[in-house]
Amino acid sequence: MTSHLTDRVTGVFLLLFAIWYGYRTTLFKVSFMVDPVGPKAFPLILAILMGVLSLYLIIKPDPSPVWPGSATWIRIGLITLTFIAYAYLMVPIGFVLATTFEVTALALIFRGPLLKSLVGAFILSAALYGLFDMLLGLSLPTGLIFRGWWG
Amino acid sequence: MEILNFLFQGFAVALTPFNIMMALAGTFIGTAVGMLPGIGPVNGIVVLIPLTYALGLPPESSLIMFAGIYYGSQYGNSISAILLNVPGTSSAVMTALEGNAMTKKGRAGPALAMSAIASFFGGTVSVVALMLFAPALAKWAIRFGPAEYFALMIFAFSTLSSLSGKNLVKGLIATLIGLMLATVGLDPVSAVDRYTFGQLKLLDGLDFVVVVIGFFAINEILRYAENIHQDQEVFTKLGRVMITTKEFAMSFWTMVRGAAIGFFVGVLPGAGGTISSFVAYTTEQRLVDRHGTFGTGDIRGVAAPEAANNASANGAMIPLLTLGVPGSETTAVMLGALLGMNITPGPLFIANNPTVFWGLIASMYVGNILLLILNLPLVGIFVRILKVPGWFLMPAVVAVSFVAVYSVNNSPFDILLMAGFGLMGYLLYKMEFPLASVILGLVLGPLVENNLRRAMSLSDGDWTYLFSSPISIGLWIAAIASLFLPLVIKRFSAASTVADEMEEVELVEVD
C-alpha cells in the first residue's frame, strides 16, 4: 500500500496554520473603520478557504512523494548552513571574499575539484563585484576588515 | 493608419542605441537562461529587477529588456532540448521529443535552424497580433470596475491553479499561500500592521524579489543536491545550421498554425508555452503526419512547438498589458517589477504610456531579428555555455542571486529570508504544490484585496455587488468552468497517438 502520510501531515499543518492565521486577525488593533470591510475580512476569508482545502487534503491525499535519502538531506543542510554563514559574513569580510567562500563551498558539496572550484569562485566573485559595484553602481559590501586599506 | 503612426513613434523609442542595447542584453540573457535546464526567464528577470531600480532605468527600457528575456528564453530552451534531450524550460518538451530524434540522426544543425526560424516566425507574427488586439481589448476593459477586476483575478487564479499542477486542490492551496504571504505588512487602507510580529523590516511587506529568488533559484540548487548528475557530453558537431527551401516550404503552414494556436493559448491565463506547444504538435501530427514520421525526427515536429511557444510568450503579454492581470509566473514577475516602478498596467496603460507600450512592441520586432542572428550563425557560442559543469554553474547562480537579493534593501537579513523561502519552495515543489500559483497570489494579493474592498465601499458592504454585472457574472462562470479544464485536456491528449509518451511528460505549465 502506498503511503499518503506526507499530504496528511501537510494538511494538518496547514489546518493549524489557517486557524492561527485567522485567530491573529482578532488581535489587529483597528481604531476606526475607513471602509466597510476593514483589514480583517480578507485574511479571514483566506483562513476559512485554507481551512476547507486543508481538510480536503487530509481526507483525499495524494501518494507521498519519493523523499530523498539522508545523503541529500545532509547536503541540503550544509547548503543552508553556508547561506546563514554568508548572511553574517558578507558585511564584515566583504562581498568578494564571502562569495568566494560560498561558491567554493557549494562547488565542493557538488563534488567539484578543489583547486578549480577555488580559482573559479574567486574569478566569478571579483567579476561580479567589478560588474555590479564598480561598473553599474549597486553598492555591495567592501568588507569592514578592509576599511583601513582603501576607501 | 493610426496604428502605423504609433508604431513609428515606438520605433523612435526602440531604436535609440540604449534601447537596442537593452533588447540585445535581454535576448542574450533570455537565450542563455532558456537554454540552461533548471533556470528560466523568471530567474533572469527577477535578478535584474533590483538593478533596474538602482540604475533608475526608464520603464520602457526595463520592460524591453524583461520582455526580451521572456521571448528570448523560448528560443534558447530548444537548444538544450535538441542537443541534450533536456528541455531548457518546460515549453520545449515537444521540441526535445522531435529535435533530439533529429540529432540522433546527425541532423542537429537543421533542427537548430528550424527551431530558430519557427521561433522567429511565431514571435514576429504574434507581435503583429499583439499590436492589433491589445489596444482593442484595453478599450473594451475600460468599463471594468473593482467588482469585475476582483472576478478577473479569481479567474486568473483558478485557471492557473487548474493548469499548473496535477492536483487542483494543491494549486488552490498554493494560491492561498501566496495571498497570505501578501498580507504581511502594513495594510495600506487602515495602516494596521498585519503579521509583522513587531519586525520593522516586515512593515513594507515581503519583497517579492526575495521570495521569488528563494522559490526559483535556491529551490533549484537544493533540487540539484538531490541528484548531482554527471555532466553529459555536449554534442558540438552541429554541421551546417541551415534548412533547405524544400524543408521551409514543407513547414510553412505548420508554422502558421503553430503561431495561431500559440498566440490564442498564450492569451488565456494559466495556459502558456507548454500547453500551446503540445496542442500545436498534436494538431500537426493529425493534419500532416501521413507517414508516421512524427517522433522519429520530422522537421515539422520541431517547427510546430517552436512557433507555438514563442507566439504564446507574446500572447501572454496581452492580459498583463491590457488588464494588469498576469496569467503566468513570468508575467507575474514582470507585473511585480512594473508595480515597483509605480506603473500599474491596466486598460489605461496603453493610452497613458504610449512610449512604453509602443516602444515595447517595436522592440519586439527588433528583438526577434536579434534572436534570429544569435540563434543561427552564433548558436555555436551558446552551445559552449552548456559545457560549463554543473558543480560550478549552480553555485554561480547562487552568487548572482545573492547580488540581487542583497541589493533590494542592502540588507543581509534578506539573504536569510531567501534561504528560508528556498527551503519552503523545495518542500512545496516535492509535494507538488505549483510554485507559479504561489507567485501569482503573492503579486496579485494586494490588488485582489484592494479591489474587493473598493467594491464593498461602492456597494456599502453589499456582497451581491460582486455578482451584479454581466461581465463579472461571466468571469465567475469562466472561473468555475476553468476548474474542469484538466479533464478536457486529458480527453484531448488521450485521443492523440503521442498519449503514451505524454504519460511520462508532465503537461504542467511552468515557464
Summarize the entry for a quick read.
The complex is a heterodimer of chains A (151) and B (511). In chain A, 66% of the residues lie in helices and 0% in strands. Chain A has 151 residues and is mainly alpha-helical.
Intertermini distance of chain B: 35 Å
Please state the CA-atom Rg of chain A, rounded to the nearest Å: 24 Å
Question: Which quaternary structure do these chains form?
Answer: heterodimer
Mean pLDDT of chain A: 90
* Major beta sheet summary of chain A: none
Number of strands of chain B: 2
Low-pLDDT residue intervals, each spanning 5 or more residues of chain B: 497-505
Q: What's the number of domains of chain B?
A: 1
The general outline of chain A is flat
Shape descriptor of chain B: globular
The N- and C-terminal alpha carbons of chain A lie at a distance of 66 Å
Helix count of chain A, per DSSP?
5
Q: How many domains make up the 3D coordinates of chain A?
A: 2
Strand coverage percent of chain B: under 5%
Order of helices and strands of chain B: HHHHHHHHEEHHHHHHHHHHHHHHH
Strand neighbour order, sheet with most strands of chain B = 1-2
